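[job 4417] fold queue: 2 targets
>>> target A
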Amino acid sequence: MANILFEKLGGKYERQGDYLIPCLTVLAEEEQPIGTWGQRHLDYLKQYRKVTYTNLLTNGKLNTYLADIDRQAQERFERLIEGMKQAQGITERLKEENALEWVQHLNNIRACARQIVNEEIVFA
């Protein structure tokens, strides 16, 4: 068999019947917790960016990449919520005076922030 790149990089073959099958392994990577944002991005990669997903998986960088996306998305989400609360004047005083109105405003802000983070980070 000719000297090919796989053999030059230290690749080994296993004989199965009359065939030589390359022994492939996926590189081990450090396990990091992945939150909701990272899981959403993982689903997006699997469905719409299959080549990127496969490259990250085979290079052993998928978990690190998803943990980073999750961290970025969570930080952006929290900054957006605080900015929108200040811009709309949602304060603790409103919470004391009219809790239902405060919850209504906060739920609206969270939904808007979630949509922005999805568009800018998770599904980009």
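>>> target B
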Amino acid sequence: MDQILQLLPQDIIDILQERKQDFANENEKIGSPGYIPADNAILIDTIIALSLGKNVLLKGPTGSGKTKLAETISSIFGQPMQSINCSVDLDAEGLLGFKTIHQDGEKSFIDFVPGPVVQAMRKGHLLYIDEINMAKPETLPILNGVLDYRRMIHNPFTGEVVNATGNFGVIAAINEGYIGTVPLNEALKNRFVIIDVPYIQAETLKIVLENQSRLKDAALINQFVALSSDLIAQAQMGQISEDAASIRALIDTCDLSVYISPLRAIQRGIIDKLEDAREKAAVRNIAETIFG
């Protein structure tokens, strides 16, 4: 990681140092590091864009490490991060907050509990919006003012105007073509700088498995790297779903393989997550070819 940071321009490094000082005394949780990019430019460009006050949209297949990248950025900036997990049920309350009744003795008061958007804006934190294209199209326009030069939002629950403070920044993630997603409209997409986050492979994946899984057997790790390569190739050809090629699922499988056979680990960690019988058979055939 230090080698990547040394590739940054000096003025960007200065910005990172200033932000770390700004949040040094906060008790808010900072994201955990650990993202290893397939290409250093992925991490470098994300850091530069956020340092310049741009919104960043991470685009890549499921399990490619977009959330881990966002957490690593939070760690590098030393900046706490508020998170939103989008779904079709996400509404204004899920974004902005909600009202609740507070009892103080015999008196009742109505309090407003701020949601992740309001908290991040008020505190100058990062805001991470996961699977933004899973949200209903009618929900997302609430964020238009947050994502453009105004950096503000009108809170319909309190009537106040919330203006972003400090180094507030937005990172969103998108899985294109995934079941349940809808295309982002151009007005929303134009508010982001887009970073492609592909699956990590080969030596980079080997390093990730060595560092982030319980598995320490070098020969088995090499076999899992080969398995991942074949699964990614099949996913790119549309033969199996991206779920089967998830790096997150692969790490889970490696952890299991410390205690059970690799084929059983693959069954539990990858195959049983799939719904289609043809896909299950395809993954099983690949696994049996590699692990025997």
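[job 4417] complete. Note on B: Strands lie at 55-59, 81-85, 97-104, 107-114, 126-130, 152-154, 161-163, 169-174, 192-196.
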